[in-house]
Amino acid sequence: MNVKEKIELILKHIRTAEEREEVEGAITVLRESRYHESGSFDIGEILREKVSRKIASIFQEVIASDEYRKDSATSEIFFSELEKSVRAMRPLSITLAVEPDEKTIERASSWVTREVGKDIYLVFKRDGRVLGGAELVFAGRYRDFSLAWRLETFFWARKEDVRSMIHPS
């Protein structure tokens, strides 16, 4: 598996801002460990001690420890390219009325990857005023798909009907 393929495998596991930050942290930990470890460079052990189990397993799945020993040019190329690719990912902010559960995160991430692109990660925000649906912000563009917006639009369009219902002639 070449460097590009390995990077793509790691990037496909980055769904949220938190996961992106964890991958950035793992890159830093692994880079720094290369210079402090003596002898062999055991990625599995380093990751188990410093990052979450999920992120550790992603790196272990993709990287063979023997390729990334101390002072290895291979590891520096890989980490530099991975870091560049992670930083190039673009955020899609999604504001929901409730905190998303794992199923919601997975469904939203799968849809965005399939329909929009692989280089996007999700930034979830919570705002009870949304009521239902979502507000989206991407690259400075805002779209409101919330229930609150739909209700406001409905009542604004039907304000005379509402007024006559409340104050019949």
Number of strands: 4
Shape verdict: elongated
Put simply, the count of helices is 8
**Spans of at least 5 consecutive residues with low confidence:** none
- Specify the helix fraction band: 55-70%
Can you write the helix and strand succession as a string? HHHHHEHEEEHH
Mean pLDDT: 85
Number of domains: 2
Strand-residue proportion: 15-25%
Q: How large, in whole angstroms, is the Cα Rg?
A: 23 Å
Main beta sheet: strand number and arrangement? 4 strands, mixed
Structural class by sheet pairing and helices: alpha+beta
Order of strands across the widest beta sheet? 2-1-3-4
Organism: Candidatus Sungbacteria bacterium RIFCSPLOWO2_01_FULL_47_10
Protein name: ATP synthase subunit delta
3D architecture notes:
- The chain is α+β, with helices and mostly antiparallel strands and 169 residues long.
- It is built from eight helices and four strands; from the N terminus they run αααααβαβββαα.
- β3 and β4 (141-146) form a beta hairpin.
- The chain has two domains: 3-88, no CATH class; 90-157, no CATH class.
- It is elongated, with a radius of gyration of 23 Å.
- Strands 2-1-3-4 form a four-stranded mixed beta sheet.
- The chain has helices at residues 3-11, 17-36, 43-50, 53-62, 73-88, 102-115, 147-157, 159-166, and strands at residues 90-96, 120-126, 133-138, 141-146.
- The model has no long low-confidence stretch (mean pLDDT 85).
Looking at this protein, list some descriptive labels:
single chain, alpha+beta, 4-stranded mixed sheet, 8 helices, 57% helix, ATP synthase subunit delta
